[in-house]
Amino acid sequence: MVVRVLETVEAHCGYHFPWSPSNFLPLYGGSDFHDYHHRLIYTKSGNYSSTFVYMDWLFGTDTGYRKLKALKSEEEDKYKEN
């Protein structure tokens, strides 16, 4: 029960902590993935899993999230260069 409560707090807080399970578990999406899940839950564009990403990956419903993550990464790289 304690682990589930901690996971819920981490997923809903909106911050990515260094001790986050998403740093250690490859199928755990963390707060970024969960925020995207809430943003698009009422649309038909994907991300139906709230925390574990394997089903969205398997059915291809995480493409929007992966594109957004790539754009953010490019943006951070440009910022670091300047």
Automatic annotation (TrEMBL):
Domain of life according to the entry: Eukaryota
GO molecular function: iron ion binding; oxidoreductase activity
Keyword ATP-binding assigned: no
Pfam families: FA_hydroxylase (PF04116)
Cellular component aspect of the GO annotation: membrane
Fatty acid hydroxylase domain segment(s): 2-61
BP term (GO), one: lipid biosynthetic process
Annotated signal sequence range: none
Compartments where found: Membrane
Classification via InterPro entries: Fatty_acid_hydroxylase, Sterol_Desaturase_Related
Keyword Transmembrane helix attributed: yes
UniProtKB keywords: Membrane, Transmembrane, Transmembrane helix
Similarity annotation: Belongs to the sterol desaturase family.
Protein name per its UniProtKB record: Fatty acid hydroxylase domain-containing protein
Organism: Ambrosia artemisiifolia (Common ragweed)
Lineage of origin: Eukaryota, Viridiplantae, Streptophyta, Embryophyta, Tracheophyta
